[in-house]
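dumping this here so i dont lose it
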């Protein structure tokens, strides 16, 4: 009986995934900037609920979002109080980086055979999501809390576009490097 065993080049496989994880980590700046509108949305949801006196649908949504942020480590609970800072957000990003990478592998697998989206299309999509997020966040905030925040929102959306484009360029460079590495080892 003849058995065929697949030849797996473990160093090549490990380097491919380490380089892919590095490329994914470059998207963390864009993710962190997206986290800004998520925290503003959370603040708007919880402020709207506090003003109504009883638990509302916005308050329930705010509490669910708060629990999700606690679960990934973006905020910490200290008794009845919660807080989030750059350290907690960075820990959450480190936690999410492999998840985002695995999600990207899944999307690539599901989209195989289809033409990839252009960098411009992906960047514009990221900016559109941020624009919708900031718009919804600002709509929920009280008038005195959102005064002047629209300028910050516009700057953040532009920064998200740049950060997304940077991450896509790094991804493209890493993919090219991996193709060359694959050709060199074959």
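and the seq i came up w/
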């Amino acid at each position: 009986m003849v058995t065929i065993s697949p030849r797996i080049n473990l160093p090549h496989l490990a380097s491919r995934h380490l380089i892919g994880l590095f490329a994914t980590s470059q998207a963390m700046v864009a993710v962190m900037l997206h986290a800004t509108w998520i925290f503003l949305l959370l603040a708007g949801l919880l402020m709207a609920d506090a003003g109504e006196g009883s638990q509302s649908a916005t308050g329930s949504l705010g509490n669910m979002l708060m629990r999700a942020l606690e679960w990934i480590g973006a905020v910490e609970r200290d008794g009845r109080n919660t807080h989030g800072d750059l350290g907690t957000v960075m820990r959450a990003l480190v936690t999410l980086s492999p998840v985002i990478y695995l999600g990207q592998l899944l999307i690539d697998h599901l989209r195989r055979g289809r033409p990839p989206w252009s960098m411009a299309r992906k960047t514009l999509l990221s900016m559109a999501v941020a624009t919708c997020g900031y718009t919804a966040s600002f709509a929920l905030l009280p008038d005195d809390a959102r005064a002047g925040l629209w300028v910050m929102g516009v700057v953040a959306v532009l920064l998200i576009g740049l950060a997304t484009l940077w991450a896509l360029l790094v991804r493209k460079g890493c993919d090219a490097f991996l193709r060359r590495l694959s050709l060199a080892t074959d």
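Residues 104 and 158 are 24 Å apart (CA to CA).
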